[in-house]
Amino acid sequence: REERRLEEEEFDTKDMWEEKFGDHIDSKPYGPMSVGMELTFPSSTHLFGLPEHASSTQLKTTAGMDGHHYYKEPYRLYNLDVFEYELDETMALYGHIPLVVSQSVKTGTAGAFWFNPTETFVDIEETPQAGGDMDSRTHFMSESGIVDLFLLPGSDPASLYGQYARLTG
Fold this sequence. Notes:
7% of the residues lie in helices and 34% in strands. By secondary structure, it is mainly beta. The strands form 3 sheets. It has a 4-stranded antiparallel beta sheet with strand order 3-9-8-5, with no helix packed on it. Strands 4-6-7-10 form a 4-stranded antiparallel beta sheet, covered by helices on one side.
């Protein structure tokens, strides 16, 4: 197996430090960056949320072991106005609400609100756990900004959505 050091790789550095949009130049004083975080919901295979997608209410997997997953692309969160959209897709529609809710008999209801306004991608994965249960993992990846995460523990969905309403207004 051949290993190379990062410095030896040839990279296209165009647009890494600034991007041009017509006459406007958007500079990136700290260079290219992104932020991300992985969250695990133990003993839960029922994740909901990330509205504004033409897919099911229960989130389906986008990543997984041995290539077993429902979607090939992560859920995209981006404010768009899509006229003719495809059904059963992870492509963004209209709004951007980065809220994931887990519902489990064993662990109850819990949620995570990823407060980042930039374009974000979310991978959903189910992983086996010792004892036969499955965990659900979410991996949030945003193009820039900071990590601002709100965890919403709730004994039931009504409690969780009450917390969410107090948080967002």
